[in-house]
């Protein structure tokens, strides 16, 4: 299920970093910080970049992990004795269909605030969970598939400048993610140690109460995504100076 938010985070990362690629391939439109419509320029740059993000081939000499399908590392969630889950070997389809809007940029404060919308995400992978949903204890280990639709996130990046070797760079100081997922459907094989009757009943119960399930995992997803993509963003941005990323 976390795939949902992870996708949102990937897009959020793309949205704010598209400028950071400016020092690299010429296939990416660079946005000047003096542009009176800087927000519009960034959105246009991201939209132009979308097909290349899907394949990961930004240019002949610059590649990134593809968004289609997106491979996700293991994600652990622990909210106490009543909610422990691990999702691994995740493959997610649909993230390249993202849309970005309502982008607000402040070059003085170095903040980037925007929305991301993902119409549909399909995923598969492995799960290991032990949760309590309402009065039912649900546990299992096995294969996971699912679909999550109408996913939205509000993302805010707070950046700062810093100097190294006489040069000025930019990094993400803080990254905030707020996620909303309209609906989802999940199929977890081998719930209740593979008992077919209980497994079917467990999946039915989760899907009938998907809103509760989504609400349980969302806070942990938001924190996990914020930490992960802050680190990734900074790793990318340290390769170019502030003037390379956002020329005057």
UniProtKB/TrEMBL annotation:
Pfam families documented for this protein: JHBP (PF06585)
GO BP annotations, alphabetical order: circadian rhythm
RNA-binding in keyword set: no
UniProt cross-references to PROSITE patterns, sorted A to Z: PROKAR_LIPOPROTEIN
Highest taxon of source: Eukaryota
Name of this chain's protein: Hemolymph juvenile hormone binding protein
Keywords: Biological rhythms, Signal
Family of this protein: Belongs to the TO family.
Origin species: Anopheles atroparvus (European mosquito)
Signal sequence region: 1-22
InterPro entries (alphabetical): Haemolymph_juvenile_hormone-bd, To_sf
GO cellular component: extracellular space
Phylogenetic classification of the source organism: Eukaryota, Metazoa, Ecdysozoa, Arthropoda, Hexapoda
């Amino acid at each position: 299920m976390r795939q949902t938010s992870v996708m949102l985070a990937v897009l959020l990362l793309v949205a704010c970093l598209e400028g950071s690629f400016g020092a690299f391939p010429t296939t990416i439109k660079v946005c000047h910080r003096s542009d009176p419509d800087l927000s519009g320029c960034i959105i246009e740059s991201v939209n132009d970049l979308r097909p290349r993000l899907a394949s990961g081939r930004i240019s002949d000499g610059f590649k990134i992990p593809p968004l289609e399908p997106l491979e996700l590392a293991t994600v652990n969630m622990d909210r106490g004795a009543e909610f422990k889950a691990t999702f691994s070997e995740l493959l997610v389809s649909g993230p390249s269909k993202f849309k970005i809007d309502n982008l607000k940029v402040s070059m003085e404060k170095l903040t980037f605030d925007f929305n991301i919308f993902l119409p549909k995400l399909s995923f598969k992978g492995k799960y290991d969970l032990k949760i309590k949903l309402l009065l039912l204890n649900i546990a299992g280990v096995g294969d996971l598939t699912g679909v999550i639709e109408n996913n939205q996130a509000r993302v805010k990046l707070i950046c700062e400048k810093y100097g190294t070797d006489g040069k000025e760079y930019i990094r993400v100081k803080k990254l905030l993610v707020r996620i909303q997922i309209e609906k989802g459907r999940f199929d977890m094989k081998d719930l209740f140690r593979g008992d077919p009757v209980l497994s079917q009943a467990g999946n039915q119960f989760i899907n009938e109460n998907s809103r509760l399930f989504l609400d349980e995992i969302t806070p942990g997803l938001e924190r996990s995504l914020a930490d992960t993509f802050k680190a990734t963003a900074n790793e990318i941005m340290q390769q170019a100076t502030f003037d390379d990323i956002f020329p005057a």
